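Researcher: Please generate the 3D structure of the following complex. Treat every line as part of one assembly.
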Amino acid sequence: MIADIQTVMWKEWRDLFGDLQRKSTLYKVGVVVVALFFATVLSLVSEEGWTSGETSLMFWLAFPFVFTSQMVADSFAGERERHTLETLLATRLPDRAIYIGKLLTPTLMVWVGVQAWMLYTLVPLNIAFGRDGLLLFSLETLLLGMSSSLALTLLISAIGTLGSLHAPTVQSAQVRIGIFTFIIFFLPIFAFALLLILPDNVRQQIVDFLTTLGVNRGIIAVTGIIFLTDVGLVILGMRLFRRSRMILD
Amino acid sequence: MTQTAIAIHTEGLTRDFDSVRAVDHLSIAIPTGTIFGLLGENGAGKTTTVHLLLGLLQPTSGRAEILSMDTMTHGDEIRARCGVLLEHHGLYERMSATDNLAFHGRIHHMSASQIKTRTQELLTHLKLYDRRDEQVKTWSKGMKQKLALARAVFHRPAVVLLDEPTAGLDPVAAASLRDDLLRLAKDEGTTLLLNTHNLPEAEKVCDLVGVLKAGKLLATGTLEALRAGSKPHITITGDKFGASLLAQLSAHPLVEEIKHADNTLNIATHTTDPTPLLALIIEAGGHIYSVQSAQISLEDVFLDLMNQAEAVTA
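Model: Done. Output below.
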């Protein structure tokens, strides 16, 4: 099973990067320069606070939203659109290997990319402000950033895979995924709006509770909830993925 | 490898899509090592049959077995021992030919060296080796079909299912692919199920054929057996084919049916030897310029069967 999942992931990787490998060097260098420039400016603006502040956590969480949903829409809908899905389903690969392989590829690619990008931000930060010793993320920030970004990337992947599972085209998959990610993205705003319409005493109790909890413990709690949701969505996806249903689309 | 006398067997195989019956009580038995052509018009149920055999669709009723394994309960094992080239070639066009084949090899747990050797062997055989590292999207349709064929036989499957493999190819590419198909089938000793509506192609390639219409199997057997069910035709051009001559011909015991148009007689007979009929025409004063004893093609057989089926329906 593990070998089959790796095979699917290998294919996804080669397929996704087949075009990129053949892009001009100028294009590839350009993408890297833009990414590094953005990281450099961001860390320099935030100064030493970057290693322990909420700003870095925010970026740890923002990237999965931006990149994962773009990649995951292609997982099944792209294969269906390019007429490769039928042949893939006609192989000996087990249902679960196909599903998990397609789920894990964008998850790991985006997550590893985000960690590498965050690691890079420390380079200009140390060059500019590291006179008194090496500036690193606090352990708390590092663990929170890594775990919460993993939970969120997996969440977007799981939603995206579900959205792509029976979508006839990548575009329709993107619309489905967009609706769900929109809801997730605006969930904190909805929660805040809800807080405003609650009676004063209830609102005060909630505010007191959140103040006691603190930002980091709050993120831990939310990350835990997201991980549980991830597990639920992955189980749901595995149940919904059936060869005999896929071919009818 | 276990040798099975019958490689593909279906019994009353039926599949409905809502109110439409795509496959209707299909019963076939394909012996190991043969090339079986499933012939039919578009929408006859050929592709659905392949999907049912691969376990990609569940039958509404009936059953199918490949290599003595039930498609409902042993789908994974069947897919492991089958190679396929479906309606669309299914190649990953952003990947190279080498990567496409490597993916297939990895699916079948082949080692890196096995994959390399087999890739070289097949791509050289199909004259694609020099372009192995190019993205498949830059290739012609014929080259893609050849690569898809290589993928279908890459893991040396016991059974290969091909759905219209030469559709959309120019005659030269189609002939080349057909030759490759025959060579590969011969070299690998595989059982082939070939879905096609290209009758000359089926005639050149298939040992056995089955004719499908609206999901129903109209006839099955060797080409000779199917031809035996149709009447030979003799086409005679000449003149002075008067009413008396035509009456004498119609009454002849070897003559089944006569069609007369301009200076041509088209005679359906019970024999492929035209001599007795020619003698009768000359004796009756007719002039003969040319005689053509047409061999019954698979197309004639196919059209006969279609006409009969339509007559029954009507």
